[in-house]
């Protein structure tokens, strides 16, 4: 608006056309989706690539299972810090540059980690990488909803979340196979090269923001809005759900490789890597959940996803590999169903500082990753897989019972109205 006096009527007309949000009929819609799909594929592959390698680190660095799991936990701690900082900065400085910086920052640690002999330095590099990885999730969803019309944004979001699942699956599977056949160092160099290619493609494909409006609010005002969400009981239940869902899900994939390498299975890392293909159910789980929720309601589908997650985890206590595989597939379907709908419900229920609310959900989500990585180590060491799996399977069910017993009402809308009238 402040440039209005400096442009001609013709330029104003062109700006009006340019500012029209993209739809599925526009080529830029598909360029945006291709760019973010590729970027998120690499980011989530980078995040979870080390998960099947934890037993390898135990042997190579001569460390305990608990210490090995820190390579995952510190990545997520860096990610949480990055989500908070980069989320605020992206609201002021724009979206696309943070997406590209995220890719660049994820690449360099893969070049440095293979040449270190110190696991402490390895963990520090993973923390730095985690911070850099946050640039994409901190900006991507906001970018989608700014640049794409509402009717098409839901479809674009489903594609984005599906690429998250696909990247997480590919990172685990490919890294495990390459590490078993050659070495984990070669796998990391391969990821760095792949990331460089994705960075180049994203640089040329991803359109500049047309609808981004930088935040003009004082930093303290943003902090007030951020903290206000933490006073809303209904949002706190949603944030708690993010922790519970991801803690159970991450706990399964963190400690399952240790279990499958022992008696009676004695599986190789190469074979264990194929178990991560169960993530494929997550690729279809997110859009399927969105489709079903439009017919029978979000809450019913989310409850079904939570129950499915718990039941799938309980299947893995069996000593039969086929049943374990079935259980993992059910687990992935249930998790991505519940997670995608929970993430969507955050933006739909708040009326102000939606970016902050979404960031808080992501923070809670990745707190769950941290808890599922390292905090569960004592349970693994004392009760082994069956004790751990039973606990992880029951947690979402117990949380569901507790949250359903708390009166819901219209507390959220009332809280938001009170804030807007302040």
From TrEMBL:
Pfam families to which the protein is assigned, alphabetical: MFS_1
What GO MF annotations does this protein's record show? transmembrane transporter activity
Keywords in alphabetical order: Cell membrane, Membrane, Transmembrane, Transmembrane helix, Transport
Keyword Membrane attached? yes
What CDD domains does the entry give? Answer: MFS_NepI_like
Task: Enumerate the spans annotated as Major facilitator superfamily (MFS) profile domain.
Answer: 32-405
Q: What residue ranges are annotated as transmembrane?
A: 28-50, 70-89, 101-121, 127-144, 153-174, 186-206, 235-260, 272-292, 301-317, 323-346, 358-377, 383-402
Record Gene3D superfamilies: MFS general substrate transporter like domains
> What span is annotated as the signal peptide, if there is one?
none
Q: Which GO terms describe its cellular component?
A: plasma membrane
Keyword tRNA-binding appears in the UniProt entry: no
Q: Which PROSITE patterns match?
A: MFS (PS50850)
Topology class, membrane? Multi-pass membrane protein
Q: Where in the cell is it found?
A: Cell membrane
Highest taxon, organism lineage:
Bacteria
Q: Which family does it belong to?
A: Belongs to the major facilitator superfamily.
User: Which protein are we looking at?
Assistant: Inner membrane transport protein YnfM
Organism equals: Virgibacillus dokdonensis
């Amino acid at each position: 608006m402040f440039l209005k006096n400096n442009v001609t009527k013709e330029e104003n007309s062109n700006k009006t056309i340019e500012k029209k949000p993209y739809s599925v009929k526009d080529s830029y819609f598909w360029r945006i989706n291709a760019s973010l799909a590729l970027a998120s594929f690499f980011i989530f592959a980078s995040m979870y690539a080390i998960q099947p390698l934890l037993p390898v680190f135990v042997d190579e660095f001569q460390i305990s299972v608990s210490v090995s799991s820190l390579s995952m936990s510190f990545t997520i701690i860096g990610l949480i810090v990055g989500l908070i900082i980069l989320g605020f900065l992206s609201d002021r400085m724009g979206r696309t540059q943070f997406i590209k910086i995220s890719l660049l920052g994820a690449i360099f640690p893969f070049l440095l980690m293979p040449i270190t002999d110190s696991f402490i330095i390895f963990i520090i590099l993973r923390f730095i990488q985690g911070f850099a990885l946050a640039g994409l999730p901190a900006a991507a969803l906001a970018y989608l909803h700014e640049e794409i019309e509402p009717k098409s944004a839901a479809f674009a979001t489903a594609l984005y979340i599906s690429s998250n699942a696909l990247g997480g699956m590919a990172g685990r599977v490919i890294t495990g196979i390459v590490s078993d056949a050659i070495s984990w160092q070669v796998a990391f160099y391969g990821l760095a090269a792949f990331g460089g290619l994705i960075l180049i493609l994203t640089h040329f494909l991803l359109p500049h923001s047309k609808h981004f409006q930088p935040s003009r609010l004082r930093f303290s005002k943003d902090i007030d809005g951020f903290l206000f969400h933490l006073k809303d009981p209904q949002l706190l239940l949603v944030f708690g759900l993010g922790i519970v869902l991801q803690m159970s899900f991450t706990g399964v994939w963190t400690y399952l490789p240790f279990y499958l390498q022992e008696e009676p299975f004695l599986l190789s890392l190469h074979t264990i890597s194929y178990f991560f293909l169960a993530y494929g159910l997550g690729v279809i789980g997110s859009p399927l959940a969105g489709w079903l929720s439009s017919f029978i309601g979000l809450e019913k589908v989310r409850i079904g996803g939570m129950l499915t997650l718990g039941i799938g985890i309980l299947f893995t206590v069996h000593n039969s590999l086929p049943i374990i595989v079935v259980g993992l597939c059910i687990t992935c379907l249930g998790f991505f169903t519940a997670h995608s709908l929970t993430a969507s419900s955050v933006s739909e229920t708040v009326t102000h500082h939606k970016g902050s609310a979404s960031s808080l959900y992501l923070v809670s989500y990745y707190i769950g990753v941290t808890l599922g990585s390292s905090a569960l180590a004592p349970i693994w060491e004392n009760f082994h897989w069956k004790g751990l799996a039973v606990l992880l399977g029951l947690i979402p069910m117990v949380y569901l019972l507790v949250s359903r017993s708390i009166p819901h009402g219209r507390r959220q809308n009332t809280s938001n109205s009170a804030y807007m009238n302040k």
